[in-house]
Every structure is written in C-alpha cells, then in structure tokens.
C-alpha cells in the first residue's frame, strides 16, 4: 500500500507561525491568544522534532495494515486504537508515519507528541488547548466559534481540563456547520510521558467522553508503554468497548530489523565515501548483520543505537562497527548479565577519556525539566564555555548536541532524546560507574539557579535566555535535591526572595524539615520569613 512509501521531507516552521492561513475578515485575537497557551513543539511537523522518527520503508507492514484497517472503520467501529510496547519497539515512529499519511489524505485533525520531562511536552495542562488549536487548523468551521469562546473568557486557558474540553472542543464542534464523512484522527504519542498517572487518567476519561457522551466525529490513535495504571484504565469497561489494541511486543520482527540495518549501513557507506573508499559494498558482511539482528531481539532500540554510534562523526564507521561487534561477542566481567543494549551503553560511555567530566554534563541533562541552550547549561552547572560540545564529542549516539549554526535565531538546546538512555543512567545496577545520582545533580542545578538569582545583574547572566526556567524550576530541583552544607549555605543567601513568592517559602521550609539532624540556623531563618508572610499562623514547633 502507499502507506509504506516514504513521505516527502517536512519543512520546519518558525515557532510563532500560524499553522493555517486566515483571511483578513477572520482575523481576531482569540486564536492568537490560544496560540500563546499551546505546546508548539508537540506537533508531528514541529521544528523541535525535525527530523522526526519515522518507520523505515517496508518495515512494520503487518502493524500498518492493522492501523489502516482501523482508520477505515472508525465510523462504525472502535474509536480508540491503543498501540503499546516497551522502549525501542517503534511506537513514536509508527505514530509519526501514521500522522503524515493521514495528513496527506485529509483525515488528520491534530497531533500531540509527549516527551519525558521536556516542559510543555510533558504538561497535560496544555494538551487540550493544543488539540483545540490544531483542530481549528484542520477544520475551518471551528475557527470562529473557538475564537469567540476565548475572546469572551480568556481565563479558559487556565481553567480545569474539564472546562477546557467543553468550551474549546465540544461547543465549537456543536456550532460548526459541517457534516463529516468519517471521524477526524487525533494522534497522541507517548501518553506515559505526560506528567503523572492522575493526569493521564483524566485525559483518557475526557477523550472517551468526547466520543461516548458528546458524539464528536473524532477518533484517537494513542501510543504508550504498557504501564500498570494505563493498563488498568484501558481494562475498564468503558475503554474495553471503545478500544482496539496492538501490542508491539507481539510483533517482534528480525526481518524488519535486518532490513533496517542493511539499508542504514548502505546509506552510511555511501555518505562516508572518503573514509569508506577501500571497503567494498555491500558492507558490512552478512554474518555481522545477523549478529546484530540476533542481539536486537527483534526490537529496534539496539539496532538504532548501533547505527547512531557507527555514524557518529568521530571516527571511521567501519572501525566503530568493529568495536561494536567485538563488544557484542566478548563477555567481560563487567558486561556479563547485561542486556545487549546495556552492554552497548557501557561500550559507548567507557570510550570517553574522562568519565567524571562526562557525568558532570550527563547528570544535569538527566534531571532537567526542559532542555536548555548550551551556554545557559554551562553557566548553571559552572563549567567553562564550550565544555558541553567538547565533553560530548563522540556521544552523539546518546545525546542531541546540535552543531553550531550562526544563522539560527533560537539557541541550540542539548537533550537526551531517548527516555531509555536516561533510565539506564539512573539505575545504579545497570549503569555502575556511570550511575547518575539524581539527588546530587538536582542539588547542582539548584545551586546554579541560586547563583543566577543572586547575580541577575552580572555580565554573564544578564543575557541568560532561560530566565523563566530558573525562576519556575529552581524549587522543583530543590525538593528533589540531596542536602549538602554548600546548598544550605546558598539557601541562606536568598533573602530577597521570600517576600515575592510565599508559596515557595513554604516548600523550602517543608524540605528543610525533612532533613535529619539539621542545624536549626537555616530552618529558623526560613521559618522566620514564613512567619513574616503569615503572621496569623503560629511559629513552628522546634
């Protein structure tokens, strides 16, 4: 089917650009106000996701045939398709390819690609405003009633999800004069990355109500890991009647992985022609392909990591592949008992000449609540300019480190793209010497935020583009931080802060009271500030 053809390349669009055109008569402030409250980077065609993960041509054909059959039958069949699988099973690639296919056919209404710990991309509060905005782009009849709703009550964008759904989606659909031949598709990827089981359950419940209670012409493709709380929700009576399921773990395919590896290695051989000139095609030998297929276990996580590592700009691809093969066939005392993917993680990380310097960068990247520009990250963690690029050289298979581009308007943001990589790093039994102690690195981030808050007029910090991150997230880092004498000393310096943010003062006091054997000096100081803000509340008991 044409579904498996490679889609045309996406063109990244500016952050502030409307995704649809309006005539002058339609122009008003409502949709612009809505645009300010959405997660721009959550769309399948956003610049932040470019280039997005896609299914390799001629892979996952059985899964796609099932998805196509479901999309063709949503008018009379189940309106929800839940595609679930463990890390590396290809959930996001499937969601992306389905979204692009349905967009070309005019059936796509909206998309939201969640991402673990990345600001708006993990915030369920912006989910329905974003979906409403995207639906207005796909369905012109929704624009006027949606805009009127926001103009008449701008506070809608800060109200509970249930109110947002009614005012931003249900009522505009009821006002729209359009008949739908078939439901419009909404693609929601990585729902398990949304902030918390309770928020995920609320979103699913409201999506079900859109179909069951309000009878809107919508259908939903959802992907996620098979977490216990999501399983419980989809096992409930309402969702059992509403949902079709695909477990990608039942579709492990050595043939797909083999096809992927052959094509990717052929591409690398062609692109790296100068360094690969003496190596004949096809490359590598078939026995190497088979070894990697066997190690992958029919899943793409290991295979994709191998390809990224081999293609990393630092070194000859054939030499790097030889190292992967050697690591795969050897069984050291360190790697024994680990999965092939964990063995590969260890191989990549162990090649770094300075593991301590590497962890100084990786640790903060793991605990960040949203990606930061490269220089801002360096300032906050107290390393010299250029340290991020220099330290992460050779780590591009694990970390997104954009190459410097002087023509780019927005700053480069560094991030760990795969949640499975971060999960490896924070598991001491898997990562061993590369373990990231989250409490320690949260403390480092807090101290960096405090330095910034205390020195906002300093030359280094005045141009920091991440002010909003520092201002909003420092307290979140604090409550997860491991206490240290240095951190407690820094907290005593924030005298200017307490009168501005009383709610944060209370959070600091609660965190301090949870520290065993704490010296009373710092606790007394913050409790005194809290008492000044709330004189009607008695002093804390010692």
TrEMBL record:
| SUPFAM superfamilies per record | P-loop containing nucleoside triphosphate hydrolases (SSF52540)
Give the top-rank taxon of the lineage listed in the UniProt record for this protein: Eukaryota
Segments forming domain Nephrocystin 3-like N-terminal: 69-225
The UniProt entry, under Pfam families, shows: NPHP3_N (PF24883)
The yes or no answer to whether the keyword Ribonucleoprotein is present is no
Keyword annotations for this protein, in alphabetical order, are: Repeat
Q: Which residues cross the membrane?
A: none
The record's listing under Gene3D superfamilies reads:
P-loop containing nucleotide triphosphate hydrolases
Is this entry keyworded Repeat? Answer: yes
The name under which this protein is listed is Nephrocystin 3-like N-terminal domain-containing protein
